[in-house]
Amino acid sequence: MAKQYGVQCRIPVRDADDWDPPVVDPQGAPGSMPGEQVVFDANKESEGHDFFRLGGLDLSKDGRWMLYGVDVAGDERYDFRIRDLAGLETGEPVSELPEQFTGIGSACFTPDGQAKYCPHGRPIARIFTRYELEKLFGRQG
Question: DSSP secondary structure string, 21-42?
Answer without folding.
Answer: PPPP-TTSPTT-STT-EEEEEH
